[in-house]
Design brief:
By secondary structure, this protein is mainly beta. Helix content is 2%, strand content 53%. Strands 11, 12, 15, 16, 20, 22, 23, 26 and 27 form a 9-stranded mixed sheet that branches. The protein starts with a helix and ends with a strand. Keywords: Signal.
């Protein structure tokens, strides 16, 4: 009540201040409020204005009149008070600032002024002059948020598989707050950290947990919630943890009122006032039942938000902690009750598969349908005609059933369990008794029917049916009656005799067919012959497929005629029957009316026969709009169309084209069926009024005014249109076009302006408004054709006084107008209108006596003209015939430019400027001069343009260009013309295309001769752009500038002045600017970049691409019969191959061009042009050579080579025509002749001979100059391998085929290539190589024969067998399931059984890479084979079928060591200083128990000793004598093969008998092994460097090298070189610190799992190309080791790259890198000082400053 009273007071106060009760003091306009904004949390002002109840709020009031001003700008009044709710002093706001349109103020807290929250209050402003304004609902106080509980909320999401099964769950924690006023929350903070709002609903607020906050239930947190209006609440509270969980539901789909069980834990500890929510609904406590700590049941309430498919389930404990199951429960409405009303058909085979339609109330496709208790398949809703409001139809497929007979049909609701059953509703028939249709032929026919159709199937006539049948009256049904039919009584179960009737009929789309006969052979399929019924096509004239259904209705009766059983069967052929319309043959009888305006839009009736829906109608080549088509029973057709617009006049053919038309039929042409006449229009009339006595000269503006010709006594005269005002016929003086040309019916016929005189009369015309009508005489035979009437367009006024003209002074003036004239006469008036030749002059003044008028003449044409004065008041008019003469005087010509401004004799120039006099009638026009010589062929195009030809000035120099008008007014060009005497003599023979759009941009080709570099092209006086002169000077390409419509000239001017103008000589077309009808647009070019050598197919997308047509409108086609599309240009270069796809798509082969972006242009045949600026980017090709196979060529030539790389140019052909050449190959600058570019990645060639061996440069050069080089080596090989055979010569595209290559001169180090793919060599002998084929490319290599190359690596000998191997796709899919036994001896020879599937005769078996022996394919699933020998360990077992399909059983067979392996690493070495002892060493051998040592002499083996150690000292030997020893490993199963090694004892002079001590204190360098490490201690040497070469094979198993350097060599400047097979190190002794007894460098090659782990941990962009080496540097003092962090000076290292790791990578991008750091204080980024790549040796070297783990990386 208080609020209402406040509003009433405010309103009364405002009304008391409004102007109705105002004194003069309130005369100014009142203030006005348009909007109020309040300060938000984010610092912005926003509307609606709201604020917290307990704080001040800044508001912004916008409007007008808040400040008023007087005329001098002084303030007269200003807002002085702002109130809230009512104009009470206690409710006054603090004003912060005021201007004319804005007030800033502060609203006080609601509590301080007695106001309440959530009530909109009025804001009132009061101005100092007493006026006020108010806005209702201006400001609202809002309650602050209030926090009561804070706890965690676990969001649980169940993860389901594709079948809906729960396979996992995810959980995420949020913070959940309970309280009030959680609306418009803008900021939530936990201990000062911001949390994001997830959801808010007034009483519940859910947020994220801030990133830096870790929730501890025992801690206290400061929680602050602030709304966007800055109202907030802060609470110190614990955040309670969630001690309960939800793990699942008893069901996930329920209806309202269902009871569901929630599974979880912690339900017993939820507290007394826990809550459960489903969606946003709080479940009543009475509907919740906690059954145990892990189960509770709840009753499902109706969802509040029905737009959500799935609802959350929240369980909230008493402390507010919550478990939320996200999107878990789908609540569906309670389904409606359903019924079964009908089942069709109600019989089918026990094998199932019968499609059955069930009709009933409220049926749905989610229902379960059962036949005899067995669920049907594929329940689908279908639409049927004639169903009642709630009836629905479903279609199901019957399931198989165990026996024949009637069964119940049951429909079950899967949600509610509601069930409806129809007893004995479906009859299962035995398969052999089921009627079924197998096929049908033909499957189409005409709509008229009577197509003979044969259906094949079974049981049309059953075996127990009589041989004869009876027809119904129209032969659409046949009936078989068996009067002695035995059946099982469904009641008693006894077999009894009765009668069976089988009625058969066939329907086509529901229409019964006439049955011809049924043929039943003794065995096999029966045939049913019918005639298709006639149909009415829907829609008419279109193909209509229909179902063909054979129905058999069976009725069984007892002997009394009672029906015992009834059922029906239905079956359809696999395909539908398609009704086709009869072929059309349209005829036009008449066209009415047969004339009309070329504007189109006239309704025309065409009568004829057999005109069908979808017909198209053409008037000439223009498509009419079909409005209606009526057809009669006699095939008569009445077609209503709207005539299309036409640019032509006269007769055109009328053509109807039915939809089924082809080149022979389906259309009809009615010759000269329609006549187009003009469509005149009137846009304005000047003057549009006149005297009732006539005499007015008026000008009518419009279009399509037709002037014909009449002939009287052989004299031609123009026949002007009939012009009438009402019934008054006017005298037409002239008709002109928009350019001022007189239309006389000879050259021109159509005008846009008519000048006509209203006949004078002594009998006044009736006063009033009249229609103006124009009728053209362009109808048939010169009759009235086009006409137009402008209603009420002219007013005849009641003339009271007639003006008169006595004289005009001056009576002459220039045609450009502007002459000030004085007209003397009488009865003029203020506002009198003056015209000269019908054109309004500008009246300056009319004298006070109305006897003189001063006016300025308008522009006119030469000659004497009528001067007219018209009084607007009453239409009075005065005419003075020949009152003013337009003459060419007082011109002021100016020349702005001359184009071109240089050239020689014959140059066509354009002179641009103004006020050039044009030749009109017999008067002369302007003349143009160069110097004092008149230009040849001068023609004044218009007052701004003159063209002329430069005469021979004989001498080069600068000459003035001037223009002289007939009145001698002269203009001189601002720049002189540079006349040149050229050497060149260019000639233009053609310009292609010779027309283009007025907008410019057309790419043209100018052909001729003697065009020079720097030539310029001019078209119509405008300079062309993008001019490119061909190197041979015979062509120019250019882009046309914009121009005016019509024909113009093309001029080429060479730099020396040589010129030619095309279009001025006889037979030359010049260039024609056209306004095209088409407007092609390019939207996309795809791809939009490619090589400068062209040849790439691109697709151009856009609109309005048109097929080219000739002048008769016929479609132009290429030699293949394809439509010719638009021309396409890339820059200036025309594409040679363009394929028109459709209106918006072209396929184009790019032409060659220079690098960079170019404009792509499409030019239609009518000149319509569209382009995409920068639409295609030409990229200079950058071919790369990655590999040349083989890498060495025979200097005598003939080596077959393959270049592997990318971006090679593939030649482009159009059929057999070469459009673009491919890449060329050069070796040392000499072109290779025998070259085949296979694709962009491979080139094959025959290497030519050279004079000398050595490195040569191989170069691939693309047609655009893109070049790639590669170093190859020519050699004189000592080997000359040959390939005799390859077995097998074909294999799987997936590779892995075991292949034997027979030939000669193969060497141990050999590589084999299949084209560019390197094979894996298994074994090699001089005449045999065994390999596993590499995989091919499935996209291009299947069924392709590849060349096979054998390359001896050492000397470069190679041989290639062309097409030696074919990759194929395999068909079989063999599979191995077991191998018995699956272990065996490393010696092989054991029989195994391989079981599996799809083994084929001729299959081969491999154990690892070795082929098994005695392979017998016992069956598809069993193979017997004998194992080959193989080293110990697990191997894959492979079965390869004859089609090269492999089955692999990984690790399927284990080879067990029997006798030991051969020992490795066996070597013998002398002992310096001991001449009678040799030391024998070897590596540990797998399977060995001990070792036997023999002395070998002349092939005799003498046993020395046996040992289980890995070294042995042989003593009592002779000095300086070579000894050979043999070693073998032995175990309980026998010995291994022998290995041998030799060495020579020390010389006697060096002997220090029995003084050998191993270690660092020896004076000589010592080498020893310990635990697989090689230990070197440097000793004295007279050499300048220590060379430690460990590349021999005896060191191949060494992975660790230890170099000890005694400190006594600290100041020795010797170099140390260490060589291993894949690693080298070099340093000077001065590079070491030597701060202990000795320095030690340890080099360890990392292998095995440690290597693999390191590789795995590397970042993804790093690839290891070598082994990893751990380098350690230490000082040794008193036996203790201390690490150095770096070397004193940088030391050199070299690492070999592994080919299998390098692959196709470019080794030049490899480098040595530190992988990890030995000590953390080595530094964050140790670098390799420099590195060098040797691509021939596959090594990378560099200098390192610190120890650490290093490798070659990419």
């Amino acid at each position: 009540m208080r609020r209402i009273l406040a509003m009433v007071v405010a309103i009364l106060m405002l009304f008391s201040l409004f102007p109705g009760n105002m004194s003069k003091a309130y005369g100014a306009y009142p203030p006005n409020i348009t909007a109020i904004y309040s300060l938000r949390l984010d610092g912005t002002m926003a509307s609606p204005a709201k604020g917290p109840v307990d704080k001040y709020t800044d508001i912004k009031i916008t409007g007008s009149g808040f400040v008023t001003y007087d005329a001098s700008g002084n303030v007269t009044a200003s807002v002085d008070y702002v109130y809230i709710d009512s104009p009470d002093t206690s409710k006054k706001l603090t004003i912060l600032s005021v201007n004319e349109n804005t007030i800033y103020a502060k609203v006080p807290p609601a509590t301080s002024i007695g106001l309440s929250a959530n009530i909109p209050y009025t804001i009132i402003v009061h101005r100092s002059d007493g006026q006020s304004a108010a806005i209702f609902n201006g400001f609202t106080y809002v309650n602050n948020p209030s926090i009561s509980k804070v706890a965690l909320d676990n969001f649980i999401t169940l993860v389901k598989d594709s079948n809906g099964n729960i396979v996992g769950r995810t959980s995420k924690s949020y913070i959940r707050m309970e309280g009030s006023y959680f609306n418009d929350v803008g900021l939530v903070q936990i201990n000062g950290e911001t949390a994001s709002v997830v959801s808010q609903s007034g009483s519940v607020l859910v947020t994220t947990i801030p990133q830096n906050i870790f929730i501890d239930p025992t801690s206290t947190y400061t929680v602050t919630v602030t709304n966007i209006y800055r109202g907030s609440d802060t609470k110190q509270t614990q955040i309670y943890a969630v001690n309960h969980d939800i793990t699942g539901l008893s069901k996930y789909v329920a209806i309202v009122g269902d009871e569901i069980t929630i599974y979880g834990r912690g339900f017993n500890s939820l507290g007394s006032d826990f809550k459960v929510y489903i969606g946003n609904n709080l479940v009543n406590s009475s509907d919740i039942n906690i059954k145990s700590d892990t189960e509770m049941t709840v009753k499902v309430p109706a969802p509040k938000d029905t737009t959500l498919e799935y609802q959350n389930i929240d369980i909230v404990a008493s402390n507010g902690s919550t478990a939320t199951l996200v999107g878990a429960l789908k609540i569906i409405p309670t389904p409606a009750i359903f019924t079964i009303d009908n089942i069709t058909p109600n019989a089918g085979s026990v094998s199932g598969g019968t499609k059955v339609v069930i009709v009933g109330q409220n049926l749905r496709e989610d229902l379960i349908v059962k036949f005899g208790g067995v669920a049907a398949k594929s329940v689908q809703s279908i639409t049927l005609p004639g169903l009642t409001e709630n009836q629905r139809a479903i279609q199901v497929v019957t399931p198989p059933y165990s026996k024949s007979g009637p069964v119940d049909v049951t429909v079950v609701d899967p949600v509610t369990g509601y069930t409806v059953t129809k007893q004995n509703a479906f009859f299962y028939l035995a398969v052999e008794d089921t009627m079924v249709v197998i096929d049908m032929n033909p499957t189409e026919g005409y709509e008229s029917g009577n197509t003979p159709v044969t259906l094949w199937g079974f049981n049309f006539q059953k075996n127990d049916d009589p041989s004869t049948y009876t027809y119904n009256e129209d032969k659409t049904e046949i009936t078989y009656v068996n009067t002695n039919y035995t059946y099982k009584d469904p009641v008693t179960g006894n077999y009894v005799t009765g009668t069976r009737e089988r009625k058969l009929y066939v329907t086509f789309g529901g229409n019964k067919a006439q049955i011809e006969n049924v043929y039943k052979p003794e065995t096999g399929q029966q045939t049913l012959n019918v005639l298709s019924p006639s149909v009415t096509l829907n829609p008419p004239g279109q193909n209509m497929p229909v179902d063909v259904v054979v129905t058999v209705e069976t009725t069984v009766k007892d002997t009394n005629g009672n029906v015992v059983m009834q059922y029906s069967e239905q079956s359809s052929p696999p395909s539908k029957f398609t009704y086709k319309p009869l072929p059309s043959n349209p005829v036009i009888l008449s066209v009415s009316p047969n004339t009309g305006s070329r504007a189109g839009g006239d309704t025309v009736i065409i009568q004829g026969f057999d005109i069908r829906p979808g017909v198209k109608v053409y008037f000439g080549d223009k498509l009419a709009t079909v409005k209606d088509l009526t057809t009669g029973g006699d095939n008569k057709s009445v077609l209503t169309v709207i005539s299309p617009p036409s640019t032509d006049l006269g007769y055109v053919d009328v053509k109807v084209v039915n939809k089924d038309a082809d080149s022979q039929r389906g259309f009809y042409v009615y010759k000269n069926g329609y006549y187009y006449y003009t469509a005149p229009s009137i846009s304005s009339i000047f003057t549009n009024f006149g005297s009732k006595y006539g005499g007015n000269l008026i000008t009518i503006y419009g279009s399509d005014f037709f002037v014909g010709q009449t002939v009287v006594d052989g004299v031609y005269s123009p026949e002007y249109p009939d012009v009438r005002i009402g019934n008054i016929q006017l005298k037409v003086i002239s008709v002109e076009d928009k350019d001022g040309n007189l239309i006389d019916g000879k050259k021109f016929n159509i005008g846009t302006k008519i000048k006509a005189l209203i006949p004078e009369t002594s009998t006044p015309y009736p006063v009033g408004w009249y229609d103006v009508t124009i009728k053209n005489y362009d109808g048939i035979n010169g009759t009235i054709g086009g006409s137009v009437t402008l209603p009420n367009a002219f007013e005849i006024k009641d003339t009271q006084k007639k003006p008169s003209i006595i004289s005009v002074d001056p009576n002459k003036g220039p045609t450009k107008g502007g002459t000030l004239i004085k007209i003397t006469g009488s009865n003029f008036e203020k506002g009198s209108i003056v015209t000269i030749d019908g054109v309004q002059a500008s009246v300056k003044k009319v004298s006070s006596g109305n006897t003189e008028i001063e006016a300025t003449t308008p522009p006119g044409t030469l000659g004497k003209k009528i001067v007219q004065v018209v009084n607007p008041s009453d239409g009075g008019v005065a005419l003075l015939v020949d009152g003013f003469e337009y003459v060419l005087i007082e011109t002021k010509p100016q020349i702005t430019k001359v184009v071109p401004n240089y050239g020689g004799k014959g140059t066509l120039i354009y002179i641009f400027g103004s006020d050039f006099s044009k030749k009109v009638g017999d008067s002369e026009g302007a003349k143009a001069y160069i110097g004092n010589t008149v230009l040849e062929n001068v023609y004044v195009l218009d007052e701004n343009t003159i063209i002329g030809i430069i005469p021979d000035m004989k001498y080069t120099g600068l000459y003035e260009i001037k223009v002289v008008n007939p009145d001698t007014a002269t203009a001189v060009a601002p720049e002189k013309f540079h006349f040149l005497v050229p050497e060149s003599n260019p000639v233009i023979t053609s310009v292609t295309p010779n027309f283009g759009t007025v907008n410019g941009g057309t790419a043209i080709l100018i052909e001729g001769q003697d065009f020079r570099r720097g030539a310029e092209v001019f078209i119509g006086g405008n300079k062309a752009t993008n001019v490119v002169v061909s190197p041979d000077g015979k062509s120019i390409t250019a882009i046309t500038p914009p121009g005016k419509p019509g024909k113009t000239y093309v001029t080429v001017v060479n730099y020396d002045g040589g010129n030619y103008t095309y279009g001025i000589h006889e037979g030359e077309t010049g260039f024609t600017y056209v306004i095209p009808n088409s407007q092609p647009v390019i939207t996309k070019v795809e791809p939009d970049k490619g090589s400068t050598y062209g040849g790439q197919e691109v697709t151009i997308y856009g609109q309005d691409f048109r097929i080219s047509k000739d002048e008769q409108g016929n479609i132009l086609k290429d030699e293949n019969g394809n439509p010719i599309g638009p021309d396409v240009y890339f820059g200036n270069v025309k594409a040679q191959k363009v394929v028109y796809i459709d209106y918006g798509t072209l396929k184009v082969i790019t032409p060659p061009n220079a690098p960079g972006k170019v404009r792509v242009t499409v030019v239609n045949y009518d000149g319509g042009l569209g382009y995409l600026e920068g639409g295609y980017t030409y990229i200079q090709s950058k071919p790369q050579i990655k590999q040349v196979i083989p890498p060495k060529f025979d200097k005598t030539g003939g080596t077959y080579g393959i270049i592997v790389g990318n971006d090679f140019s593939v030649p482009v052909y159009d059929k057999d025509k070469l459009i673009l050449p491919g890449s060329s190959v050069y070796i040392d600058g000499v072109e290779v002749k025998d070259v085949q570019v296979v694709d962009s990645t491979m080139i094959k060639f025959i290497a030519p001979p050279v004079d000398k061996v050595g490195t040569k440069e191989l170069k691939v050069v693309n047609p655009d100059g893109g070049t790639a080089t590669f170093k190859v080596e020519y050699v004189s090989p000592s080997t000359h391998p040959q390939i005799y055979s390859i077995t097998p010569d074909r294999g799987s595209i997936n590779g892995g085929t075991y292949v034997v290559i027979k030939g000669k001169d193969f060497r141990d180090k050999v590589k084999v290539y299949f084209d560019a793919y390197e094979a894996k060599v298994i074994s090699v002998s001089p005449d045999t190589i065994v390999i596993l084929t590499p995989p091919g490319d499935p996209q291009k290599d299947i069924n392709r024969s590849v060349d096979v190359t054998v390359f001896n690596e050492e000397d470069g000998g190679s041989f290639t067998l062309k097409n030696g191997f074919t990759y194929i796709a395999t068909e079989t899919k063999p599979k191995i399931t077991s191998i018995t036994p699956n272990t065996g001896s490393t010696k092989g020879g054991e029989t195994v059984t391989i079981t599996g599937d799809d083994f084929r005769q001729g299959a081969r078996v491999f154990f690892g890479e070795k082929e098994a022996l005695n392979v017998v394919v016992k069956s598809y699933n069993t193979i017997i084979a004998t194992t080959p020998s193989h080293p110990e360990g697990k191997v894959d077992v492979i079965v390869r079928n004859p089609d090269y399909a492999d089955a692999v059983f990984p690790q399927g067979f284990t080879y067990v060591q029997t006798v030991p392996d051969e020992p490795v690493g066996f070597w013998v070495e002398s002992i310096p200083g001991n001449d009678h002892t040799l030391r024998l060493r070897w590596s540990e051998t797998k399977g060995a128990k001990y070792y036997e040592i023999y002395l070998v002499s002349d092939s005799t083996y003498k046993f020395i000793a046996s040992t289980d150690k890995l070294e042995y000292y042989v003593t009592n030997l002779s000095p300086n004598t070579k000894y050979t020893f043999a070693l073998r490993a032995v175990n309980e199963l026998g010995p291994s093969n022998f290995v041998t090694a030799s060495s020579t004892t020390d010389r006697s002079s060096n002997s220090k008998y029995d003084t050998y001590v191993e270690g660092a204190k020896e004076n000589k360098t010592s080498i020893s092994t310990s635990n697989g490490a090689l230990i070197v201690t440097l000793g004295d040497t007279s050499e300048s460097e220590y060379i430690l070469n460990f590349k021999d094979d005896i060191y191949k198993n060494i992975n660790k090298w230890v170099i000890n350097v005694p400190s006594k060599y600290k100041n020795t400047a010797k170099k140390v070189k260490i060589y291993t097979q894949k690693f080298e190190m070099e340093f000077y002794l001065t590079d070491l610190y030597f701060t202990g007894d000795y320095d030690r460098i340890t080099i360890t090659r990392i292998t095995g799992k440690e290597y693999e782990d390191m590789v795995k941990n590397l970042s993804k962009n790093v690839t290891i190309l070598s082994d990893i080496y751990d380098i350690k540097y230490e000082k040794i003092t008193d036996g203790k080791a201390v690490n150095y962090t770096n070397f004193k000076n940088n030391i050199y290292v070299l690492i070999g790259v592994e080919n299998n790791r390098l692959g196709k990578k470019d080794i030049n991008r490899a480098k040595i890198s530190y992988i990890t750091y030995y000590l953390p204080y080595v530094g964050p980024n140790p670098m390799v000082i420099m590195y060098n790549v040797d691509r021939n040796k596959n090594t990378v070297s560099g200098k390192i400053s610190s120890p650490g783990q290093i490798a070659v990386t990419y």
